[in-house]
Amino acid sequence: MSERVAIVGVGWAGFRPSTPHQSYKELMYEAAVRAYADAGVDPRSDIETFVTVAEDFHEGTSIFDEYTPDQLGGALKPVHTIGGDGLHGLATGYMLVRTGQFSLVTVEAHSKASNILTLPYITAYAQDPVLNRPLRLNPEYIAGLEMHRYLYETDTPPEQCAAVVVKNKRNALLNPLASFAADLTLDEVLSGPPVAWPLGRHEIAPLVDGAVVMVLASEERARLLTNKPVWIRGIGWCNGSASLESRDWADALHIREAARIAYRQAGIRDPFQEIDFAEVDDTYAFKELQHLEALGICLPGEAGLLTEQGATEPDGEFPVNVSGGSLGVGHLLDGTGLARALEVVLQLRGEAGPRQLEDVEVGLVQSWRGVPTTSGVVAVLSN
Amino acid sequence: MSKQIKDFRGTPLRESDFQEGKVLYVHDALRGEYAWDTGIAIGHYLASLKKGVILGARCDHCRKIVVPPRTVCEWCFRPLTEYVPLQDTGTVNTFSICYVTWDVKRVEKPEIPAVIEIDGASPGHGILHKLGEVNPEDVTIGMRVQAVWKPAEEREGAITDILYWRPLKEVEKR
Amino acid sequence: MGMRKVAVVGAGMTKFVRRAQETGKELSWEAVRMALDSCEMTIDNIEAVCMGTAPDAFDGLHMKAEYLSDGAGAWLKPYMRSYVGGGTGIFAPIQGWYHVASGLFDTCLVVCEEKMSSFYPHAQAAFLTIFDHTTERALKPNLLWIFALEMNRYMHTYGVRKEDIARVSVLHKRNAADHPCALLGEPDITVEDVLNSEVLAWPVQRYDVSPVSDGAVAIILAAEHVARRITDKPVWIEGVGWCLDTAYWTNRDLCYPRYVEVAARMAYEMAGITEPRKQIDIAEPYDPFDYKALHHLEGLQLADRGQAVQLYIDGTAARTGNMPVCPSGGLLGVGNPIAAAGLMKIAELFWQLRGEAGARQVPGNPRRGVAQAWGDLMQVGTVVVMGR
After folding, report:
1. Res C123: pLDDT
2. How much is the ipTM here?
3. A123·C266 Cβ contact <8 A
């Protein structure tokens, strides 16, 4: 067994609302070439196993794993696909290295959201086909229901959700990978049209295409390959209630449990004190608040206040979504978690350019699989 | 344990259970529509089919020509940047005589899908397509075939710009 | 530090039926409950859950595993779905293996579910979307094509006769007559029956093919120190291997599954197997079509290329033979709810190696078995070696 696992290479491609010049294979290839160059490895001779993350309906192809090996350098090697978020892939790579059977693993996730012409339908097909789908409601309604109950139970005013949008889109101004950077006022966010009241249009992360590839290594290999390894200190994942009829609408219990697992592995007792910054899922603005509370960064009802007071700004006590988050960068469907992990890696390496945080040693990244799921991953990374 | 268990669960239904309303069900037709970006390599392949040419790509590192073209050689992971026109003749690598359609409807006149190794590509490198103008019983592995194209003005840059492949007659052999 | 040993300690399955009244969630739960009962565990003893289920298109459900999660017992637990097409049923236990071998979990529940009957009018049509959307799908390819193309190439290359291949179907369907969950057990079927069955896509005929089905299977994995507390008959996962060949399947020779060979060599090396033909007592190769069992026995290095059919001719493959093949009845006999069918082979080895397979029991106290699955565009091999 290799106890410690490091991220030793990262690569990305796309991160734009559309990428018509590249097929999904070419997008993955571009990200892979960068990651291998970054890690200083040759996939054909060095990488021992490959993990990709994809959902068939997002690809428009059944058993999509078929089409993953070639552009990653994985042909005729151990390759498999996870139906999950990019961070599920990271967790899988982490486990594979820890078995002691593999010392170098590639993890990939991507989005070709622009190629899906009927995405609201596709998203709706994740609902229970008998109980929920016949209601023919826009899938965002589930987010609206969750948001309303969250605001109600935590006494969070809508302005504090809007403050998340203002912060994240402003953070994105310093991120060249961001497609939706903007300098908005609170009023501009609040006056946007409602989609599923109380959820407004500005509070929903827009979609982008993109691919992210990471190379994971055992401690021994990592030490040989790089002097800037980023360690996976802990990673937890969890599913809550699949059913809309029996879930906690206000609290993200699945994130709470995933965080507990990750913190236990990382030996973290007080995340607010021991972690320097976080990239937290903000598919919907209120989710950033709900997730911060589930992550134990603060108590229920406090995340909005922290945001309003500037504690989660880049120069605040606990910076959240310095990258711009999904609201500012864009949402990469199944690739979102890995895209957010990319920011944590760049920050921990000191390679985040104009948005570099000072003296960061421990970063947190968290993902959620979107409506109607209660599925998410939490990872603690350090340099 | 297997031998201790008497009661394996799972309740079989018959088609008649549905017709007679003994079980209820919800019917839904999916609307999944996509417009896949063809990208660089396959984009060239399709554009070339429209012109009546099958395009391959050369890997100088592995010294071979593959079809359809791709951006990266899956064996050496070097980029493939040189596209080469191939011939529209080839050899049947394997075939089937298929009496059911993709959605399992029985047909009288069978389809003959085949893997066709394309002349000009490296040995063993073919594409999936169909055979036509041939009696099913006359098809053999190793048979020489030639593409039958749609008229130029009807081609749209798709694999169906080739209608099918027919046996290559002796006199036509180059 | 050495690798953590991982054992199978419990197993359960539903009947494999053409069309089940139970939903996918309910099938999953039935299999899970039986697996837990079999080793006197409760869901609270389970630390993580792995789900194997093949394409979402069958159910018309996006992110199918999320929907299935509560049925699979994953509520408030770490839960993940892996897939490698038809290879999924043997991959899910590999996924469970690395969950435990990584040291993160001491117990892991592995569930494989398939409900193919939901697709209307026929599950096979769902397979159109496995083909490349730009270069192949426009030809309206049929799933049967790829099997027929591969079978023809196999027969042509090695001179294997259809009447010999039919022996596979006969043996497996006869074996399945002893399986209480089987859909197509036929004790009296003959080679003539297979050869006279309807031609679907020559050389593939009706009885060369396994039936689409609904069903679920679950197994429970545990780390060594926990396994020894749960049972005095743990069955160890001695080796695992998997391999995915290039997606450009028309650029490879289909006569031999080299991806199965790579996966098998990986699993054998982990298991310390140097002479598989001597060291393996039972084989459960993937048999969605009869020739596939032969193809896979060759990839598994249990027969020379083109020679696997000899195992059926000389009786080696029979349940009382030297190396019984698919004593369960395989997919051809028990049924083929894709992912569940693969995990059924793991459950079979578990029961066989514990001497609990009832009427299907292979004589002679078998010590070690290999199970294998295959999938995608004739592309993936997944292999698990189990032993007591």
Report:
1. 78
2. 0.97
3. no
